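Appendix B, record 7
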Amino acid sequence: MPQPDHVMALPLSETPDLDPEMAALFDKCVEKLGFVPNVLQAYSLRPKKLRNFAMHYNELMLGESGLSKLEREMIAVVVSSANHCYYCLVAHGQAVRKLSGDPELGEMLAMNYRAAPLEPRQRAMLDFAWKMTKEPWTMGEPDRQALRDAGFSDADIFDIADTAGFYNMSNRVASAVDMMPNREYHKLDR
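Structure tokens (predicted):
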């Protein structure tokens, strides 16, 4: 059984070599969340990759988009469900609970998003993300058109694909290094 402080299977320095900007990011996490997410701690093994990961994540999840923050988190959970990524299911499931105000939605998305009571727009978005994750070679114009028919712009379609692609990558890294979610996530927004 993993220990409460288990971040990942690879050993980490107790004092990571962080530049001032990344040290400030860790401090901000502690201030806002009460902890540093283990994904950031794991990436501290490779400080340049930590910076790139944090910048990409912030732009993807917090930057300007026709997708709401909740919709981006929903994509993260559905992609992580398809990939069976424990870390991201727990961490992003908590974000869905918080942003939606619905303690059940994150779990429905994690178990089977098709069971969730979703708007047609969200259903089309998650169908696209699921297919892109499970059968990316089959993606084509009909898949993009289904999103347009649901009200998404071409820029939104790019954001859906970019978000799903990012979580496919991060799911694989998290699984490969046995990244564990912070225990605090389990208790939040219940």
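Remarks on this record: Residues 64 and 93 are 22 Å apart (CA to CA). The two ends are 24 Å apart (CA to CA).
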